[in-house]
Amino acid sequence: MGTAEIIDGKAFAAGLRERIGAAVGGLKAKYGTVPGLAVVLVGEDPASQVYVRNKGKQTLESGMASFEHKLDASTSEETLLKLIADLNADPAVDGILVQLPLPDHIDSQKVLDAIDPEKDVDGFHVVNAGRLATGGDALVPCTPLGCLLLLRDRLGSLSGKHAVVVGRSNIVGKPMAALLLRESCTVTVTHSRTADLPGECRRADILVAAVGRPEMVKGDWIKPGATVIDVGINRVDAPEKGDGKTKLVGDVDFASASDVAGAITPVPGGVGPMTIACLLRNTVEAACRRRG
Ligand code: GUN
């Protein structure tokens, strides 16, 4: 199946984590302290628990300090805001991440905007979103940053390329478009109301799919030779593996797309591993800025 080159995000992320570990060692030697990342989880969402566990584990493996705050699902917004204020004031904490989604009774953007922008390693604070949009020195959301590192590694300069982003979320689509624009791509952002989605996708030299719809982007939506970045992580039934079994698939139909694309990220093992690696990178970045 497929003539496309497979972009190995797992291997790239492993290399990135090694470089981060070396940078952490350098900070420790120079300042006598290691960067610290605080992760806040509210409630018991199973997927979020897995993410938070992995973040903590990889933070420690890279030599940094990890602070986990697990709060009950009934925690009030006021209590959460008080915790954020304490973490903002804590000199051992360089990065703060509040795992999303938060329970419905909490105003997520209010909580995200309470984080000190210099500790906002998710890049979701309105100040960092604004800096990214206006060419300032932003902390950049981890998943789009991971996509950009993979694209630069494969293509070198992205200048003048036509990039199409499928999806307009604050977490991926919008910051991805801003990053690609910063790289001098011509950027089209598509979404659920786009009139001719396959036609827009077919114009892309770089196609980034981030819609959360399993295998939506088909091979005949892709320009031959294009670079395809699949951000989707969708769990679907896999009757071929046995009764009640499931598997992970992306937003791109890998079987047909890999016959047309020049290069493509797999799911799993593509963008996924890059997200946590970029979180560690942002934490080191925040720590350097705060010490420098
Ligand atoms: N939930 C899903 N993706 C993310 C992410 O990148 N950061 C946070 N904080 N929560 C998420």
UniProtKB/TrEMBL annotation:
It catalyses: (6R)-5,10-methenyltetrahydrofolate + H2O = (6R)-10-formyltetrahydrofolate + H(+); (6R)-5,10-methylene-5,6,7,8-tetrahydrofolate + NADP(+) = (6R)-5,10-methenyltetrahydrofolate + NADPH. NADP(+) binds at G167, R168, S169, I233. Pfam families: THF_DHG_CYH, THF_DHG_CYH_C. Residues 141-290 form the Tetrahydrofolate dehydrogenase/cyclohydrolase NAD(P)-binding domain. The keyword NADP applies. GO terms for biological process: L-histidine biosynthetic process; methionine biosynthetic process; purine nucleotide biosynthetic process; tetrahydrofolate interconversion. GO terms for cellular component: cytosol. Its EC number is 1.5.1.5, 3.5.4.9. Keywords: Amino-acid biosynthesis, Histidine biosynthesis, Hydrolase, Methionine biosynthesis, Multifunctional enzyme, NADP, One-carbon metabolism, Oxidoreductase, Purine biosynthesis. Pathway: One-carbon metabolism; tetrahydrofolate interconversion. It comes from the Bacteria. One of its GO terms (molecular function) is methylenetetrahydrofolate dehydrogenase (NADP+) activity. Residues 7-122 form the Tetrahydrofolate dehydrogenase/cyclohydrolase catalytic domain. Catalyzes the oxidation of 5,10-methylenetetrahydrofolate to 5,10-methenyltetrahydrofolate and then the hydrolysis of 5,10-methenyltetrahydrofolate to 10-formyltetrahydrofolate. NCBIfam families: PRK10792.1, PRK14186.1, PRK14188.1. Homodimer. Belongs to the tetrahydrofolate dehydrogenase/cyclohydrolase family. This is Bifunctional protein FolD. The gene is folD.
